[in-house]
Amino acid sequence: MNYDIAIIGGGNAALCAAITAAEKGARVIILEAAPKPYRGGNSRHTRNFRCMHSGPLGPLVDSYSEAEYLDDLLKVTDGRTDIGLARLAIRTSEECLPWMQERGVRFQPSLSGTLSLARTNAFFLGGGKGLVNAYYRTAEKLGVTVCYDAPVTHLELDDDRIVFLDYTHEGETRRLSPNAVIVASGGFQADTDWLARAWGPAAKNFLIRGTPYNRGVVLADLLEQGIEQVGDPTQCHAVAIDGRAPKFDGGIVTRLDCVPFSIVVNKHAERFYDEGEDVWPKRYAIWGRLVAAQPDQVGYVIIDGKSLNLFMPSVFPPIKADTLEGLAVEMGLPPDRLRATVDQFNAACGDTAAFHPSELDGVTTTGLEPPKTNWARPIVEPPFYGYSLRTGVTFTYLGLKVDETAQCSIGNRPVGNLWAAGETMAGSILGQGYLAGFGMTIGTVFGRIAGREAADYAN
Amino acid sequence: MQTDLLQEARRQAEICNACRYCEGYCSVFPALHAHRAFTDGDMTQLANLCHNCRGCYHACQYTAPHEFDLNLPQALANVRHDSWEAFAFPTGAARAFQKNGLMIALATVIGFALLLWAARAIGSMGGEDFYAVLSHNAMVAIFVPAFLFPLASVAVSLRRYWRETQAGDLRLPDIVAAFGSAARMRNLSGGHGDGCNFEDEDRFTHARRIAHQAVMYGFLLCFASTTSGTVLHYAFDMPAPYGLLSLPKLLGIPGGVLLTFGCVWLLDLKRRADPALGATGARSGEIAFTALLGFVGFSGLALYAVGQTGMMPALLVIHLGAVLAFFLLTPFTKMAHGFYRLTALTADAARIRRSKAAS
Ligand SMILES: Cc1cc2nc3c(=O)[nH]c(=O)nc-3n(C[C@H](O)[C@H](O)[C@H](O)COP(=O)(O)OP(=O)(O)OC[C@H]3O[C@@H](n4cnc5c(N)ncnc54)[C@H](O)[C@@H]3O)c2cc1C
Ligand code: SF4
Ligand code: SF4
User: What is the pTM (predicted TM-score) of this model?
Assistant: First the structure.
């Protein structure tokens, strides 16, 4: 069988591209590196997508304007944003929601514990795997061929065209020569050697929150052949997660929301940053980097009995002890030093009457370095609880540079039959920082654009 | 109850509680997320709120081969079945039948035999038609206890359930709410109106919901038909047989058709469904029970059809034998789930009422 379009990857961006192209009559094949139970890459771990809307839309309340959306984005990227592409993604997001519904995606009201996102983010019923399942059903109904266990190893570039691609399947290397190729194979975060080349050996201690299949093989292959790149390999979205999480695919349940009610120490039982700087959703992303900078890339969160029920439960139960020293022993921390750090912290706490767990309450320490500027309550009530923290990488930003038609380029010319969508080109829009739900927006918007453009080209 | 089953379900519930992605599928998740730690009673209640639609399995990013090995439909089904066994009265009876298709078949045959014997021994005491086979008084003598015993047994079980789950006070509005969601099978819509994932991996269909509605309403119609017959007999002195346009037949014929057709459909769905997502080892018991229920409907219809012919006596004995087995097995087979489910929905309505009042 000859295919018009080969799509590399099997996550949200790949599926949006496949469905769009197949609806335009193209013969499409999806080459997914993962076996069927693990299909869908990082997309299977997602829960929502951020969507502009001028009035109530699907599960979304009120409105969320282009200007406000862009403003939210610029705040987190420190201005390192391609405004043109960002506006395109934001503006198109509104028509995506009904498009998704028509193709089987179902939404639910904002999950308990995430009310702050009810206006801006539409939550998938059953999460991202539910979305991915619906898209595979839709794609297969449209006649898209899906090949699992089929990692692509090489794209052959001849001047400004991809002439063939190689992939392995059932133990042998196979070759396809489609008219057009769409790359939707995510970032390279699962290749910890590559991370280590960029970050130094510390990266070997990072945990990867999502799929082990996003190893950047196609990305590296294309960059080596001179395809235009964007971003640098040290930029990634990383958060602090439970240190006991699995190396890969731990997903959402490994997140810890207790930092604002805690003190966080390193393996020498020393504090290193203001735990109460801001509400947790606004801070959890910086803690990935903070922990990465500590010895052995590990941190320890300490809370006491009164704080245990103030945050969402997480997947592993906390380590528990009746005394601080006992907790230190269980966690492998020096007990006398932990005692000293906690005593010093407790002494710096003041009046806690204004304590309010869900708002910046200004309950701060005085004369402590680093300070804790909100929710600073002495850690005194047994039992004491602890969690270890490690850096969990969500995705990397280094990627393929694309234009507003999602097309890749070499030098200053477009590559005639090569498009890219999703995480693998997200760096074209986001230079740094991340806005919750924007990854799925980029994948949906640019997946659809790539599918449309490739189908027009192939027909 | 079995602690290993409870513990496995608890392990999975704790993962779900940190995830919450399935919140919109059914009433299990909002109830689950209301807890931080799960007692045995909490797990029992959650298990009885689950109707095994499998939506949360196919949507789960943590199913095997992932090391978290989530399979919530099965974990809850195991606790659910175990709870029915543990609360059954007399204890032990459910263990014999619940998961054992052979025992159900055996009980049915014994039902036939008993009726045959009764027909022979006390048989035609000069009655007409049906009562020529088995006198009305004999039928009453057999079926009144066969009907009252299961009711009493189920009542004891539900009381045990209510205690174990610490469901609190029992209030009428909660019961009304429970009947409301059961009547519409609200939860079987899948939370999005597309239905269940039952018979074809992650495809959503309404098949199971419709088939189950057919069985439930078919059963209720048949039940109403029998009741109306009894009322006609005693209050109006109008004994069977009844004409085509009489109340018993107007209720009984559509009821029998729905019941038979629904059971056949459910059996087909069950045949196609993946047993690894249901309670371990429960398949034969469920299939035998559904077959028995369908047979009750079918033999009842056949009885209408053969009417006054020579086949009637034999068929009557078979039909009544099946009905007898069905009644007596009600507390110890899948049939019990309806009672538990209503109780669980009532307890959940109470939980929602209390949490609303608290906030
Ligand atoms: C735990 C977690 C939660 C998240 N939550 C959200 C959220 O709620 N909202 C949001 O917007 N974003 C979220 N994100 C980010 C989001 O997952 C990504 O932005 C988005 O899924 C990217 O989609 P994609 O299709 O580009 O990549 P992916 O979904 O990762 O798909 C890449 C695909 O390429 C395949 N592949 C890789 N290499 C090859 C190869 N050589 N050959 C063939 N196939 C290959 C992979 O197997 C995979 O199927 C989350 C990420 C994680 C890890
Ligand atoms: S079943 Fe899986 S996806 Fe659903 S809530 Fe539980 S852990 Fe999350
Ligand atoms: S199987 Fe269906 S009813 Fe049971 S918990 Fe999962 S989604 Fe709810």
Answer: 0.95
